């Protein structure tokens, strides 16, 4: 069972990033907010985060974000957690975990409660935020996040904190993220087999954004694209909150498989070729540069198999173009493309391919920068790159008490007016 994140954590906290290419575990100490200026800003008033232990292993038993072999994944998690425990000198009992599979669904829901003209207080705020409980009856779906992205009083929008104000009705726009119940239960079972409790479950692009974005980007509008091995997930941040998340089942592994099929070479050789020579953009010298490609099933190179680099680029570029075009179409269909503005932050292990940023800029028609963890201290250079953004973001989530709506108050007795009404209508009203 997931525990509520009711207050800011302090002391030792563990984050577990379960991806299609690697399993990563960070153990960190969360301290006083004043010791980390980046986290003491207006957007994230949390404590300082210093990593004390790191462990990562090749992920086995996960494909395109979905768990395919429980036993293999259990072994990968145990190895990663053991390495992190050994470095930190502590034994872990619980972890915060990401979820990229299970088809996470994102929607904005309007909720309202009556305040009968009196001053809005903490109890009224708790009542309106607790309306997420009504959503738990969605068949086959588990609630992952219920995030307030804005409040209204008597229909007046743009209120960040309604406490101390007066009105007849108090409303909230809730960003609700759900995932397939079966995928969540399977993940929970794997953790139980590893003798770990699940402190919280966080969708991957949300965590990546928390670790990579600066406050101005969160406020003005930005899209975070997390390019993993099996999935590419993305989130839109606006006015300091995450307002939309989505995921497509295409990632870096698909590029590797395309190379393996196109050159008829083993998967491991294709991954090596992609890492050493791969690029998403052509150059004038590509036709002159050749790459040695080992054929499948041949131990000795009887006949050297050389291909030009231009052929490699010709395989990689169409797959990345497809990925960014899918992201663009999903954003446009959701209606959040305009809110996100012209800013994109690209992160995740697959984003490190040369030319990926320039290609994203071309297809998405936005300004693109590379993102890496900036809100976590103590990360070695090898663990401070884009591939570790999600794991670092889980620690930022743990250190912040108010990222999700409170989940510890009793269910309200007052029925809300128009629980599912105005879904997404605030977009049209404001923008």
Q: What do you see in this structure?
A:
The relative contact order is 0.18. The strands form five sheets. Strands 3-2-1-6-11 form a five-stranded mixed β-sheet, sandwiched between helices. It has a five-stranded mixed β-sheet with strand order 14-13-12-17-18, sandwiched between helices. Strand 8 and strand 9 form a beta hairpin. It is globular and about 85 Å long. With 431 residues, it is α+β, with helices and mostly antiparallel strands. It has helices at 70-88, 122-129, 181-193, 204-212, 215-220, 252-263, 267-277, 309-334, 356-364, 389-399, 425-430; strands spanning 11-18, 22-30, 49-58, 62-63, 66-67, 94-99, 105-114, 141-153, 156-159, 169-180, 197-203, 222-227, 232-238, 241-248, 290-292, 306-308, 343-347, 367-370.
Question: What shape does the CA trace take?
Answer: globular
Distance between the termini: 39 Å
In round numbers, the mean pLDDT is: 84
Tally of separate helices: 11
Radius of gyration: 23 Å
State the helicity in percent bands: 25-40%
Structure summary:
The chain has 431 residues and is of the alpha+beta class. It has helices spanning 70-88, 122-129, 181-193, 204-212, 215-220, 252-263, 267-277, 309-334, 356-364, 389-399, 425-430, and strands spanning 11-18, 22-30, 49-58, 62-63, 66-67, 94-99, 105-114, 141-153, 156-159, 169-180, 197-203, 222-227, 232-238, 241-248, 290-292, 306-308, 343-347, 367-370.
């Amino acid at each position: 069972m997931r525990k509520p994140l009711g207050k800011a954590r302090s002391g030792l906290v563990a984050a577990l990033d379960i991806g299609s290419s690697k399993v990563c575990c960070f153990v960190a100490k969360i301290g006083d907010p004043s010791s980390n200026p980046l986290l003491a800003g207006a957007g994230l008033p949390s404590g300082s985060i210093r990593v004390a232990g790191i462990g990562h292993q090749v992920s086995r038993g996960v494909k395109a974000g979905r768990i395919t072999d429980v036993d293999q994944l259990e072994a990968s998690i145990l190895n990663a957690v053991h390495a992190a425990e050994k470095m930190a000198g502590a034994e872990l009992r619980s972890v915060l975990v990401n979820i990229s599979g299970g088809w996470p669904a994102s929607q904005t829901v309007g909720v309202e409660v009556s305040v009968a003209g009196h001053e809005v207080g903490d109890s009224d705020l708790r009542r309106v935020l607790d309306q997420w409980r009504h959503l738990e009856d969605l068949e086959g779906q588990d609630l992952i996040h219920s995030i307030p992205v804005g409040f209204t009083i008597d229909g007046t929008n743009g209120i960040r904190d309604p406490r101390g104000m007066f009105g007849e009705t108090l409303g909230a726009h809730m960003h609700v993220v759900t995932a397939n119940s079966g995928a969540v239960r399977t993940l929970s079972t794997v953790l139980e087999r590893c003798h770990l409790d699940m402190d919280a479950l966080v969708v991957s692009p949300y965590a990546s954004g928390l670790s990579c974005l600066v406050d101005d980007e969160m406020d003005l509008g930005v899209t975070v694209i997390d390019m993993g091995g099996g999935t590419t997930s993305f989130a839109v941040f606006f006015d300091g909150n995450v307002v939309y998340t989505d995921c497509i089942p295409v990632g870096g592994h698909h590029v590797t498989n395309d190379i393996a099929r196109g050159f008829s070479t083993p998967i491991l050789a294709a991954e090596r070729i992609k890492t050493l020579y791969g690029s998403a953009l052509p150059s004038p010298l590509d036709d002159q540069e050749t790459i040695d490609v080992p054929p499948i099933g041949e131990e000795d190179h009887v006949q050297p198999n050389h291909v030009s680099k231009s052929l490699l680029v010709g395989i990689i570029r169409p797959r990345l173009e497809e990925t960014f075009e899918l992201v663009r179409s999903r954003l446009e269909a959701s209606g959040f493309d305009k809110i996100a503005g012209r800013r994109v932050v690209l992160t995740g292990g697959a984003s490190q391919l040369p030319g990926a940023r320039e290609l994203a800029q071309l297809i998405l028609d936005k300004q693109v920068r590379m993102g890496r963890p900036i809100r976590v201290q103590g990360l070695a250079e090898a663990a401070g790159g884009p591939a570790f953004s999600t794991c670092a973001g889980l620690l930022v989530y743990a250190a912040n008490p108010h990222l999700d709506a409170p989940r510890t108050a009793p269910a309200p007795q007052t029925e809300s007016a128009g629980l599912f009404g105005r879904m997404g209508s605030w977009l049209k009203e404001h923008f």
